[in-house]
User: Which sequence fits this backbone?
DNA sequence: GCAATGACGCTCT
DNA sequence: CAGAGCGCCATTG
């Protein structure tokens, strides 16, 4: 493909960034109901090892009403880590509990029991 | 373009 | 087990 230079618009750059998130969304979309996956786990499954932070960023960029099950994504401690304000952290916990995911007194999930385990590389 | 910030995580103390 | 340090990367001032 001819490499167009200088003329690349910011729009194009934006598109590339979103495209970078695609594999992340693709993996997150496969998390089954009643199970959870960690940011780092998703990063790895998306072939982006060590970029857990990028996963969190991708989740934050989701638009309202997205069909991606963002609530099934938790941190490595099995807890809900949400941004300030919005109260989305409570929403996430409620949605998970409604799917049967249990939280202990400390507010964390037993990953040994609820972590999603995809069969093999896909 | 540099510095700070943020839905993260692993290692070392 | 809590806290500090460091790595990673997109976004913002």
Assistant:
């Amino acid at each position: 493909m001819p490499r167009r230079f200088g003329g690349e618009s910011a729009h194009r750059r934006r598109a590339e960034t979103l495209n970078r998130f695609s594999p992340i969304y693709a993996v997150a979309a496969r998390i089954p109901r009643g199970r959870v996956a960690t940011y780092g786990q998703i990063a790895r499954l998306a072939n982006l090892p060590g970029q857990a932070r990028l996963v969190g960023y991708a989740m934050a960029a989701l638009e309202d009403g997205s069909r991606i099950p963002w609530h099934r994504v938790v941190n490595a401690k099995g807890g809900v880590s949400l941004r300030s304000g919005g109260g989305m952290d409570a929403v996430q916990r409620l949605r998970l509990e409604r799917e049967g995911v249990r939280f202990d007194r400390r507010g964390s999930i037993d990953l040994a029991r609820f972590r999603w385990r995809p069969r093999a590389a896909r």
